[in-house]
Amino acid sequence: MSNVGLLYVGAVLLVNGLMLLGHVPARSAAVLNLFVGALQCVTPVVLIIQAGGNADAILGASGLFLFGFTYLYVGIVNLAGLEPEGIGWFSLFVAGAAVVYAGLSFGHLADPVFGVIWLAWAVLWTLFFLVLGLGRERLTRFTGWAVVLLSQPTCTVPAFLGMTGGYRSTGGLALLAALVFAALFGLAAVLGRHHQNAPAPNSIVPA
């Protein structure tokens, strides 16, 4: 995945998590979603054109569209005041695709750390499906906290490591990442329960 695009995915996930928690208005968050969504659609097109038919390069670029389409969808829905169920069901597709990309990272690409990151994203997008597609509003605050807490270690941190040549992927680091992500999901569950009586946000469009 493009490290530049991944950096801004971390930014938009943070803002959208805060939106779910009621701290950022939906229409305000929509603008950043459109910017990052457009970036995550243009970037893979350029990468695929430059790949020269290299299958692994095309595979690496293809996952960017999952994020690009999600953020464009969220931005348009929030600006237009549309129903969010379509985003929820699209998120189910993204979650399934993320599991496939995780398997490819563990096996074909020999990148176990990113395999764990893809699995974390699969969990996040599954939560989006439950909240938006199935209307499980009781999970909204847990989802918001999970997005806030996971946005930086799954996006911003590996992006900066990749751009500075510091990214490493070993089985030991993958296990450490899995433990950290599991702890953050657990913390999100605790924080979500602690604030479950707080007023609901005006919009629950998350990703």
Task: Offer a quick outline of the entry.
The protein contains 8 helices and no strands. It has helices spanning 3-20, 26-50, 55-62, 64-80, 85-106, 112-133, 140-163, 171-194.
Topology of this structure?
Elements: H1 3-20, H2 26-50, H3 55-62, H4 64-80, H5 85-106, H6 112-133, H7 140-163, H8 171-194
Helix pairs in contact: 1-2, 1-7, 2-3, 2-4, 4-5, 5-6, 6-7, 6-8, 7-8
Characterization of the model:
There is one protein chain. It is built from 8 helices and no strands. Helix content is 77%, strand content 0%. The protein has a single domain, classed as Serine Threonine Protein Phosphatase 5, Tetratricopeptide repeat (Alpha Horseshoe), CATH 1.25.40.600. Helix 1 packs antiparallel against helix 2, helix 1 runs antiparallel to helix 7 and helix 6 packs antiparallel against helix 7. The protein is globular and about 40 Å long. It is mainly alpha-helical and 207 residues long.
Notable characteristics:
8 helices, 207 residues, Serine Threonine Protein Phosphatase 5, Tetratricopeptide repeat, mainly alpha, globular
